[in-house]
Amino acid sequence: MISQKVINILTLVYILLVVIAAFVAFQLIAPDIAARIPKAPVSDASAKALTLATDLSKQLITLATALIGGCIWLITRPLTNDGELLERLIWSLLSLLLFTASMYFGFIEIDASLTSLSEGVFDPLDDIVWWPQTLQYYSFVAGAFILGLACLRSINAIVEKR
């Protein structure tokens, strides 16, 4: 069995790696770097933006659905001590809540895109589309982070001795 000290160290390493990855990702898409990319003409940019927006929403809905299954799997794993049940339930339920919110905001974004199209226009930066999609993305990322944390904190139940 892995000691609690090792699990705490692994948790800190996990959090550190996620923070470093987020910083690197932000640096790669920072506006000053993106401005240096040569501009290429895009035919029918509005249609392409609609396709990308709805595809991203559908992809995140699918991933959130799959990770909800991961939360359920984690909750059903055997327990190694009495305090683990409460900790695992808290992390898993928080993750479930965030994945459900991500799916909800994804459905709202798709509906907002349809509403926008019914008016004959589509602008991905319009508040009716941008906010739900942004909330969907960040809900998903937070849920995935917390599920990873829950799995890491429950590593003793995942590792089976033979």
User: Could you name the ranges where pLDDT drops below 50 across 5 or more consecutive residues?
Assistant: none
Overall strand count = 0
N-to-C terminal Cα separation, in Å?
12 Å
Mean pLDDT: 84
Report on this model:
The chain is an all-alpha fold. It has six helices and no strands. It has helices at residues 4-29, 31-34, 45-75, 82-118, 127-153, 155-158. Helix 3 (45-75) runs antiparallel to helix 4 and helix 4 packs antiparallel against helix 5 (127-153).
Task: Give me some keywords for this one.
162 residues; mainly alpha; 80% helix; elongated
In short, what is this structure?
80% of the residues lie in helices and 0% in strands. The protein has helices at 4-29, 31-34, 45-75, 82-118, 127-153, 155-158.
Topology:
Layout (H helix, E strand, L loop, with lengths): L3 H26 L1 H4 L10 H31 L6 H37 L8 H27 L1 H4 L4
